[in-house]
Specification:
Length: about 290
Amino acid sequence: MDWTQLLLEAGLDIPLENPQFIIKCPFHDDVHASCSINVDKGMWICFRGCGQGSLRSFIQRFLGFDDSALSKYLDEREFSFDINMFDEELPLETGDLPEVESPFKHGYVPEWIFDRGFNKKVLKRWDCGIDSYNNLIIPIKDRGFRLVGWVTRQYNREPKYLYSKGLKKSKVLFGEFNIEPCSFVCITEGTLDTMWLDQHGYNSVAILGANMSTSQQEAVLKLPTDELVLCLDNDDAGRIGTDRIMSCISNRFVVSYVQLPNGYKDVQDIRDKTLLSEVIKERTFW
């Protein structure tokens, strides 16, 4: 099993750089990261006592599946390979993600998304859709406007976000195709954050998590702008991600970051247009 892809599909924001890492445990109110995962060995352990075992058991518990549902879920995602593929060294995968077809209805969106302040114009601009469970479907398109996957924002269910099968988040810069020459571009963690900033007149892209991959970094450095404004979430992961990104690209770009007011987790939480404008205007330069 490709445990990294399975964890991403389940809705967990995990780092892609190492096979072993520590995240905040999803099974208790974790202030400091205490859950160690090894995707090569397919094992996990929570050092606060939530449990340990195989990643199969981890995913089953996280998604709330019984044995039958879990087996069906994993069978649909199992991959095979040719044993002869290891006979010679293969080049690194550098090509574009494959284009996919959307099975969802577009042009219609769930009513609950309007309660979050989004308008029809921006939802249509991003070609959003709806599935049979009343979830919002957000297409992921590359710089050539090709559909390479989608994000499902679930309605009143956990995890909140699901990623389409085969979508490699590390190779995606959400919203890249929308960016035209401008004075600055905002970088967010999530799709809705970027769409929210776009609705309020700010150019934005999302890295689909708190970590920026090498592929995303290369794409960011090609954006037609003079400044990058980091608008990551107001939590430990967001602050760590901000520091890492600034250290990687500050020698190539003018880089700044916003400081969200207390009580606001991300930019999409800021519903007041004037306050959002002030937060971006008062950004701190690196």
